[in-house]
Automatic annotation (TrEMBL):
One of its GO terms (molecular function) is protein dimerization activity. GO terms for biological process: methylation. It holds the Pfam family Methyltransf_2. This is Methyltransferase. The active site is at residue 257. It comes from Streptomyces albireticuli. Keywords: Methyltransferase, S-adenosyl-L-methionine, Transferase. Residues 23-97 form the O-methyltransferase dimerisation domain. SUPFAM superfamilies: S-adenosyl-L-methionine-dependent methyltransferases, Winged helix' DNA-binding domain. PANTHER family: O-METHYLTRANSFERASE CICE, PUTATIVE (AFU_ORTHOLOGUE AFUA_4G14580)-RELATED.
């Protein structure tokens, strides 16, 4: 019995391993399924009720049988549920792909399934061989230059980054003592999603968002909606050229991982020039462990490769962050993980 049991366990384990490989091999098909669904606005068209495949095909001008097959594949991915043959509703996960729903991830899904994100991945092997960013060779410019030339895509990117920041924004103000600072400068802060959350929780604090004109395009409207216009300032600029003076806390969220070490040192040195000696630098990024744990979040390592193929940056270890900060005149004091499901850690540094 012991031998038979061992054989059975080995077979079961073998199927698990085969399933892991199969899911990876079929992974791009799932990405393209999601891309088609969000571009056809499937989830918004179904809404809170239920729709038939034939009815959706009539609205979309698509072939009915192919439409039903698409909807069934979405049901197989647990984004829809087929309540009767050919009739579908959205699941809780599918609701996140509707516009205007709380916690919507629609812009994030559209951005990360856009050719601007995906085509560089076709040349991942080339990037691994050369260490160079494949996006530049595909599009003839760097990622942020491409966004600047395509305002609609830039707006989608800003919305996607806002959606990706909401989970952190909900948790961060209670996990870090922002109330001890008079002015928080969010360098590369985009539309101000994170800074808004900080200022709402700390009424005595003021804020500055520093970003390019494209990055700040939606910031004024956000601060107006939040009633924060009088407590905020928008500083248009290039963090490779300078950082705005006037803050006692300088915050960098998901900025450092976009750039190589030399570029990061430039950004940090500009902050060091303007931060008072009593001030603080707060870097908010995932922090890679020294070795990969079986429990490690795989998305962090996929993000690392996304930085390689699309923007030229990388995810970093605690040692990497300590070294970067030291090279720019900062001394890292604490590195504090945010509670799951957040993958971010708070790297606090002081002027050296």
């Amino acid at each position: 019995m012991t031998g038979a049991g061992s054989d059975e366990e080995r077979v079961t384990a073998g199927w698990r391993e085969r399933g892991t490989v199969a899911r990876l091999a079929f992974g791009q098909m799932g990405t393209q399924l999601l891309a088609a669904a969000v571009r056809l606005e499937i989830f918004d068209r179904i809404g809170a009720g239920e729709r038939t495949a034939d009815g959706l095909a009539g609205d979309l001008g698509t072939e009915p049988r192919a439409t039903r097959r698409l909807l069934r594949a979405l049901a197989g991915m647990q984004l829809l549920a087929e309540t009767a043959p050919g009739t579908f509703t959205t699941t809780a996960a599918g609701d996140l792909l509707r516009s205007g729903t709380p916690g919507s991830m629609l812009s994030m899904a559209r951005m990360f399934t856009d050719p601007a994100m995906l085509r560089g991945w076709d040349l991942l092997e080339e990037s691994v061989r050369t260490g160079r960013t494949s996006f530049d060779s595909v599009f003839g410019t760097d990622f942020f230059g491409h966004l600047k030339a395509h305002p609609e895509l830039s707006a989608e990117f800003n919305a996607a980054m806002s959606q990706a920041t909401r989970l952190l924004a909900d948790a961060l103000p209670a996990r870090y003592d922002f109330g001890r600072f008079g002015t928080v400068v969010d360098v590369g802060g985009g539309d101000g999603t994170l800074l808004s959350a900080v200022l709402r929780a700390h009424p005595g604090t003021r804020g500055i968002v520093h970003d390019t004109a494209e990055g700040l395009a939606q910031a004024a409207a956000r601060f107006a909606r939040e009633g924060l216009t009088e407590r905020t300032a928008l500083e248009t600029g290039d963090f490779f050229a300078s950082a705005p003076a006037g803050g006692d806390l300088y915050m960098l969220k998901s900025v450092i991982h976009d750039w190589n070490d030399e570029q990061c040192t430039t950004i940090l040195r500009h902050i060091r020039k303007v931060v008072p000696d009593s001030g603080t630098l707060l870097i908010i990024e995932p922090v890679l462990p020294a070795t990969v744990s079986p429990e490690a979040p795989d998305l962090t390592y996929l993000s690392d490769l996304n930085m390689l193929v699309n923007v030229g940056g990388r995810e970093r270890t605690a040692e990497d962050f300590t070294r970067l900060c030291a090279g720019a005149g900062f001394r890292v004091g604490t590195i504090t993980p945010m509670p799951p499901p957040n993958v971010f850690q708070l790297i606090e540094a002081k002027p050296a």
